[in-house]
């Protein structure tokens, strides 16, 4: 999986190859390669109508991991901590971009 860090923002699957990519990274990659979008991992040509599909299973796994980091006492991953706030903000940004993308 390609991502900025452990707090991957809104995981997505590259369509059709199936690689999992952080939504933020995936949308940035596609924006740089608009003419012929490819998978950031294997360079397979993506389906233009739906280049990225939300990976709900991975997204839930990451959310559980973020929760476990908070439960372990890691202050930065508490709901008011810097890393948690950044992760939540990046995730919201990706979800907003996805809603615009689908319009």
From TrEMBL:
Listed InterPro entries: Znf_C3HC4_RING-type (IPR018957), Znf_RING/FYVE/PHD (IPR013083)
- The name this protein goes by in its record: Zinc finger C3HC4 RING-type domain-containing protein
GO: which molecular function terms?
Answer: zinc ion binding
A Pfam family the protein falls into: zf-C3HC4
Organism domain of life? Eukaryota
Keyword line:
Metal-binding, Zinc, Zinc-finger
Domain Zinc finger C3HC4 RING-type residue range list: 14-42
């Amino acid at each position: 999986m390609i991502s900025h860090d452990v707090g991957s923002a809104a995981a997505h699957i590259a369509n059709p190859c199936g690689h999992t990519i952080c939504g933020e990274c995936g949308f940035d990659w596609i924006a740089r390669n608009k003419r012929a979008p490819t998978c950031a991992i294997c360079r397979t040509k993506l389906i233009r109508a739906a280049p990225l599909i939300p990976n709900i299973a991975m997204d839930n796994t990451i959310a559980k991991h973020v929760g476990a980091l908070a439960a372990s006492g890691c202050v930065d991953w508490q709901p008011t901590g810097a890393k948690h706030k950044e992760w939540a903000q990046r995730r919201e940004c990706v979800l907003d971009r996805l809603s615009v993308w689908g319009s």
